[in-house]
Amino acid sequence: MARPPINAAPATEDPAEPHYTGHRDRLRERFKYAPDSLPDYELLELLLFMAIPRRDVKPLAKSLLARFGSLRGVLNAPLADLESAEGLSEISALALKSIQAAGQRVMKQDIMGKPVLNSWQVLLDYLHGTMAHEAKEHFRLLFLNKKNELIADEIQQSGTVDHTPAYPREIVKRALELSATAIILVHNHPSGDATPSRADIDMTREIVSAASALDIMVHDHLIVARSGVTSFKGLGLM
Fold it and tell me: Is residue 102 a contact partner of residue 96, using CB atoms and an 8 Å limit?
């Protein structure tokens, strides 16, 4: 059998196979056995693999994290902002947003039809995940039945970056339509500061007054921001 020449170059990978193929396989294997060991950029790479099958996406994953600050920031970024990121197509951006939507849907299913007062932290996690990174204020209503089970979760109003109108009569009317006996008020502060404003406090008192006239309990008013969730009841404001 003929021997290879002494000065022959060592065997190399098939030049037709992209250099990142082996990296993808190794990353998938690591995820199977130790998903928590992956840093954010590698987890984001895995997500991008499904949307971008024929490109090295490690540089893209790192650039997205640098631009949006964190994995949460990437997934919560507005679709238009993702589409404007270099290296992301509309389809790739939609893929990332669909992952975010699926996660939010799962969290919502974990609390719908259940006594939310007994799983308060799960509720707070859900609200923070769905509202903390919104660019505009939204006023949300959680309607509960006599068992304090969540029967409806609705955005009543959407406003500007620092104001959302809330109408006590409309809130009470909707509660009666749903046969709700209790409500949790929720709105977000896009500024990132979850501290209640004077207007927030006054609005809450008006809603509580209108609801109590019809024996509808307002359990709490929660303000959601990137810094966390503030409870009016916890602050002694209710």
Answer: no
* pLDDT averaged over every residue in the chain: 86
Average pLDDT over residues 4-29: 58
222 burial level (CB within 10 Å; 0-12, 13-18, 19+): buried
**Given a cut of 90, is residue 176 above it in pLDDT?**
yes
Q: How far is CA 141 from CA 70, 155, 161, 167, in A?
A: 29, 6, 19, 12
Pair type for strands 217-225 and 228-231: antiparallel
User: Is 138 in a helix, a strand, or coil?
Assistant: strand
pLDDT beyond 70 at 160: no
- Using DSSP's 3-state secondary structure scheme, residue 223 falls into strand
Q: For residue 150, which phi and psi values (nearest 5 degrees)?
A: -75, 120
Q: Which pairing describes strands 138-144 and 217-225: parallel, antiparallel, or unpaired?
A: unpaired
CA 8 from centre of chain: 56
Structural domains in the chain, sorted by start: 21-105 (1.10.150), 114-231 (3.40.140.10)
H or E element at residue 141? strand 138-144
Taking the C-alpha atoms of residue 4 and residue 63, their distance in angstroms, rounded to an integer, is: 45
Q: What is the CA radius of gyration of the chain?
A: 25
Tokens of 26: 């190794």
Distances (CA, A) of 94 to 4, 74, 111: 52, 12, 26
Query: How many residues are given for the chain?
Result: 238
Q: Which two tokens stand for residue 2?
A: 């003929």
